[in-house]
């Protein structure tokens, strides 16, 4: 409605995010109600931003998404760790903790061998800060305008991890080639962690339509990065 986007869910609002400004990207900032709240009866709202999803068949698209993410992470580097990060218990939060060794995860038989291969490829990725860990399909483009970043998925992890999630998604769901890692300059170690996150999240879900298909995608992506 107008320049506002309503969502039938309560968004995870990060203190200080609404004040972020940059010439390198546009941000769909969360909006408050008249009484200062970020939600009303289970609904939340963000500012509408012009743009549409790009062509995911082009390597340049993934580069632009990652560049937008890098600009965003530079802009939010000074924001404090949100308190709700440690309290979240959704599928994605649990999968993320498994990927970082903060939670035990018993993988389904279809995922177990790939999980072991991915774990062998893990390594340090740098200092943690606020990141948007679901940039794929949440960066929009419009002619003559900086990229627009929407639907922030806040995590407290190294920026390289958030970038690698984009590459993992490209490999698993958009038929990207292994050469993409070199093209966008994201390390195999980072992508291994991101793939483990995505697979651990799938492992947590109880609504998967085709576990074997998901397992095949993760196995192929692990092979694509040499694991």
Helices and strands, with pairings:
Elements: E1 4-7, E2 26-27, E3 44-47, H1 59-75, H2 91-99, H3 109-120, E4 129-132, E5 139-140, E6 148-149, E7 154-157, H4 159-173, H5 180-184, H6 188-204, H7 211-224
Parallel strand pairs: 2-6
Antiparallel strand pairs: 1-3, 4-7, 5-6
Structural account:
- The chain contains seven helices and seven strands; from the N terminus they run E-E-E-H-H-H-E-E-E-E-H-H-H-H.
- A three-stranded mixed sheet has the order 2-6-5, covered by helices on one side. The chain has a two-stranded antiparallel ribbon with strand order 1-3.
- Helix 4 (159-173) packs across helix 6, helix 4 (159-173) packs across helix 7 and helix 6 runs antiparallel to helix 7.
- Helices cover 39% and strands 10% of the residues.
- It is mostly helical and 227 residues long.
- It has helices at 59-75, 91-99, 109-120, 159-173, 180-184, 188-204, 211-224; strands spanning 4-7, 26-27, 44-47, 129-132, 139-140, 148-149, 154-157.
- The termini are far apart.
- It is globular.
- The chain has a single domain, classed as Aminoglycoside 3'-phosphotransferase, Chain: A, domain 2 (Alpha-Beta Complex).
- It comes from Paractinoplanes pyxinae.
- This is Aminoglycoside phosphotransferase.
- InterPro entries: Kinase-like_dom_sf.
Number of domains: 1
- Shape assignment: globular
Distance between the termini: 47 Å
Number of strands: 7
Question: What topology, given as strand order, has the largest sheet?
Answer: 2-6-5
Rg of Cα set: 18 Å
Helix content: 25-40%
Order of helices and strands: EEEHHHEEEEHHHH
Level-2 CATH architecture: Alpha-Beta Complex
- The fourth-level CATH homologous superfamily is Aminoglycoside phosphotransferase (APH), C-terminal lobe
Number of helices: 7
Mean pLDDT level: 91
């Amino acid at each position: 409605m107008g320049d506002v986007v309503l969502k039938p869910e309560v968004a995870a609002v990060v203190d200080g995010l609404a004040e972020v400004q940059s010439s390198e990207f546009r941000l769909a900032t969360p909006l408050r109600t008249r009484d200062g709240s970020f939600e009303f009866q289970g609904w939340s709202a963000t500012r509408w931003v012009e743009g549409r999803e790009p062509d995911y068949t082009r390597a340049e698209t993934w580069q632009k998404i990652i560049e937008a993410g890098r600009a965003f992470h530079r802009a939010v580097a000074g924001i404090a760790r949100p308190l709700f990060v440690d309290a979240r218990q959704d599928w994605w939060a649990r999968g993320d903790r498994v990927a970082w060794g903060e939670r035990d995860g018993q993988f389904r038989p279809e995922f177990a061998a790939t999980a072991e291969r991915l774990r062998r490829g893990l390594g340090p990725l740098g200092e943690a800060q606020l990141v948007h860990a679901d940039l794929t399909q949440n960066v929009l483009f419009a002619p003559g305008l900086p990229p627009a970043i929407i639907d922030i998925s806040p995590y407290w992890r190294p920026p390289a991890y958030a970038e690698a999630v984009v590459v993992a998604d490209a490999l698993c769901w958009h038929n990207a080639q292994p050469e993409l890692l070199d093209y966008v300059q994201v390390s195999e170690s980072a992508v291994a962690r991101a793939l483990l996150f995505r697979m651990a999240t799938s492992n947590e879900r109880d609504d998967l339509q085709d576990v074997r298909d998901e397992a095949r995608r993760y196995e192929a992506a692990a092979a694509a990065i040499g694991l």
